[in-house]
Amino acid sequence: MNVFNSILILAAAFLAVFAEAAFSFPHRLLGAQIDLLPALMIYAALNLDIFTVSLLAVLGGLWFDSLSANPFGISILPLYAIGFPIWWKRDLLLRELPFAQVILGATASAIVPALTVLLLLTGSHEPLLGWGSLWQWIVMTAGGALATPIIFGLFDWCNHTFGYQPLVQTAFRPDREIRRDKKAK
Question: Do residues 105 and 144 make contact, with C-beta atoms less than 8 angstroms apart?
Answer without folding.
Answer: yes
